[in-house]
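step: validate -> pass
step: tokenize input -> pass
step: predict -> running
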Amino acid sequence: MSVPFGALKGATGAFFPGLTLFPPVSVPSRPIPAQAFLNSETDGMPLQPFRVAKVRNGIGMPTPADATAALGNIATRQQLLARGFSGFDLTRAVRSGDLRRVRQARYATRDASCEAVAAARVGGLLAGASAASTYGLWAGFDRRIHVSVGRNSSRLRVKREPRFVGGPTEVVVDSLGVPVVVHWIEHGAVPELGPECWRVDLPTCLRQMIAWSDIETAVACFDVARTRFRLRDILASFDPRTEREREVLAYSRPGSDSGVESLVRQRLAQLGVEVSQQVRIASVGRVDMVVGGTTLIIEVDGEAFHSDSSAFENDRRRDAELVSLGYTVLRLTYNKVTSDWAWCERKILAALEHFTIQEG
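step: predict -> pass
step: emit ->
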């Protein structure tokens, strides 16, 4: 989500009242570029390449804004200087409105998300569920902004210095009105030279999701990561260190294109119903899941899935093709799965009972 610069305006010394400050936790982090985990067979999320915005003497010259966009729309001064820009170039970009200095030595483009800008203004990195969303992973229903800062980080945009005696200290967020949770982590400070200065790397994000989320959310996040990124490379950098991490890896399965599909798979497994995911059916293509030992197909629509009429018509064509082949199709929506699972469960069990009666 993009936000106008004016929505985050404030003096350099402005505070972030409302932050929830957590005591130091140990989640070692060594920045690893997201490109290292991209699955060439899926729609990964590579960083934007430089776009040529100006031509000088017939030669395309990237601007500081271009370089910042390529770094994820947030950059440190050191990152931009390392790319050949001078301090004067940065000052000129700020004065022209191409960049905004959201904090000392931190710059943002107009396309930077409000969550990333909020993390930069606090002085940290998007972490946990907030980082998972930027990687296209399932983040659950936690809408707070999670920010990682170093154990000894200072000059944070908070109203008062954290005191851990008596538990977490709660303060309020700037003009956004969104709660922010600050996690004090060993090696959790912003890497000034990158590769990214606005979110934790992918293995750290997955580890944080396992540590900070419920098991169902953590498994769903990992399920989607298995589809979106190369699992072999993820596991090479993600050696399970705790019993909880081993538990999530044991429950995780390939085949979920979205978090809500993983939720359906997990909840059916708890009922003793096993499914095969991403099954290819001739003349139709892949379907989300087929219940084992039956011809019951379950299709799960995402949160913003098929909003245009052509996609809607294509779904109905597929459903008709499947029925003509002898399958029963049950389509579940995001809202039903996430807010009325009892209804979904009743419909699925009723359909399975129908198969049992037929077989009897």
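step: describe -> The first strand starts at residue 19 and ends at 25.
step: cleanup -> pass
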